[in-house]
Design goal:
This protein has 413 residues and is an alpha/beta fold. Helix content is 29%, strand content 27%. Helix 1 packs parallel to helix 6, helix 5 crosses helix 6 and helix 8 packs across helix 9. The longest helix is centred in the C-terminal third of the chain and has 18 residues. The radius of gyration is 24 Å and the shape is globular.
Length: 413
């Protein structure tokens, strides 16, 4: 933005003759508000798939698994892994990252576009930092918008979908219902600078990348903390000192293990299509206390794990389900080292923790929300459970093979 020059034109009429004249006054220099440049961005997420998705949106930031001491570059994403922790544990992690934030960095707090996790506690904690807080859960590329104060998915109000199937409570009917006493306003119009007030959350929709750019610019002028989904994060990418991605090569072919740790109907249908197209019999993980033991697993170049279609999920058994998945994946990994496709953020964190992975170097996003990264000699794809068309897993597996081939030649795209 910066300085703008204006020509002042004065037009007058001369009484009876109705003659007119125009006087051009020399150009006057005025000042518009400068949009501060973004030298560094720190992303804080409550689950791993969200951290990876946002890191990819920002051009390829390294993703650090929180809870471990490790060197931090100027720009990075950190996974607190607090989606299933207590609200107190989550906000403690958030405060820790705020206290460690470099003075020149912009803070982006990645939250779930479907309003899951400790969203209320997150926003309540952020307003205590004394900054304006801008929140947008919109993902226009997935047709997720804020309409009349309600999150809609493909035109359907969130509380009328099955996307909260694993949650212990029903989805909120509106954002205001969820936030309660947290100081906030939900805009039904374009954001203006005066809407961002210290100690208050301002909620807005995003319809396009251009609108996201404008919203992010206003937020930086006002010194706001940005909160939301990757559509808002992308507006920071062109101005940040993001990594250009890992400069690493891999060699040879690798087996692939697909783990679908989501109970969403779409994720289960994706698993069924993958198995049907590739001639696989999936390894079924139990989803209730009455289910039988986990199968010992199968070995092969492509193995798929997931929940049985149509089986009712017991939400109380979330930690037990993750533990079952982690045990089975660790067992399969001992048979042969594999590239991994991990569906669901909690699933990804559980499995990578068991395998000793502490950092992911993002290669690229292969479709919305699906991000391929490198950890040592292994490729790892992560994706939220609620994302993707029915052929999503097929596309991810094929893209991983292509990326491994490119990295073997030293030509990662």
């Amino acid at each position: 933005m910066g300085s703008v020059w204006h020509e002042c034109v004065i037009r007058a009429m001369s009484g009876a003759e109705h003659a007119s004249f125009v006087m051009i006054v020399p150009m006057i220099k005025t000042q518009e508000p400068e949009v501060p440049g973004v030298t560094a961005v720190v992303v804080v997420a409550d689950d791993l798939s969200g951290a990876c998705e946002t890191a990819a949106a920002l051009g390829g930031l390294p993703v650090l698994l929180g809870g471990f001491d490790q060197a931090r570059p100027p720009s990075y994403a950190v996974d607190l892994s607090t989606r299933e922790a207590s609200a107190a544990e989550h906000t403690a992690g958030l405060r820790h990252e705020w206290d460690a934030l470099p003075a020149e960095a912009t803070l982006f707090v990645k939250t779930d576009s479907l309003l899951r996790g400790h969203l209320k506690a997150t926003l309540q904690e952020l307003v205590r930092f004394g900054r304006p807080v801008l929140f947008s859960p919109a993902l226009p590329e997935l047709r997720r918008h804020v309409r009349a104060g309600t999150v809609e998915v493909d035109g359907v109000p969130l509380h009328q979908t099955d996307l909260w199937a694993r949650e212990l409570q029903p989805a909120p009917t509106s954002i205001s219902e969820l936030l309660g006493e947290v100081p906030h306003q939900v805009l039904g119009r374009e954001l203006q600078p005066g809407d961002l007030i210290p100690g208050q959350v301002t909620v807005c929709d995003i319809e396009s990348p251009a609108q996201a750019d404008r919203i992010a610019d206003i937020a930086r002028i006002r010194g706001a903390i940005l909160v939301g989904a990757s559509a808002l994060a992308r507006a920071l990418a062109v101005r940040s000192q993001a990594s250009s991605g890992p400069q690493q090569s891999l060699s040879g072919e690798a087996s692939v293990l697909v783990v679908v740790g989501s109970a969403a109907g779409a994720a289960i249908r994706q698993l069924e299509l993958l198995c049907a197209r590739r001639g696989l019999e999936p390894v079924i993980v139990p989803t209730s206390a009455t289910s039988g033991p986990v199968e010992a697993g199968k070995d092969g170049p492509l193995v798929a794990l997931g929940f049985e279609a149509g089986e009712q999920l017991d939400p109380e058994l979330g930690p037990q389900l993750l533990d079952s998945l982690g045990v089975l994946v660790a067992r399969l990994d001992r048979l042969r080292r594999r590239d991994l496709v991990l569906i669901g953020g909690e699933t990804a964190r559980e499995i990578l923790g068991r395998l000793g992975v502490r950092r992911l170097d993002v290669v690229r996003e292969v479709e919305p929300g699906a991000v391929v990264s490198i950890a040592g000699e292994r490729l790892i794809a992560t994706r939220p459970g609620s994302f993707g068309a029915e052929d999503s897993l097929l596309k991810i597996v094929d893209e991983m093979k292509s990326i491994r081939h490119d990295l073997a030649k030293g030509t990662s795209k």
